[in-house]
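ugh ok fine here u go
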Amino acid sequence: MPSNAEIVKNALDDFREIQRYMAVAKKENAVETYGELKEKYLYLKSLLNVLGVSLTDIDKIKE
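structure:
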């Protein structure tokens, strides 16, 4: 079973990656792709909030 630190690290890595992909999708006007990425973004954002991670400095999307 992964430790809390491993869970947080994995979620942060995924969060950073999703934000990068969302920025590209928005730039390319890929509306459907952006929508799908946003679902995962919101899931990860809520998970990180539950884990007590402050997203103030790392949330570039702010949605």
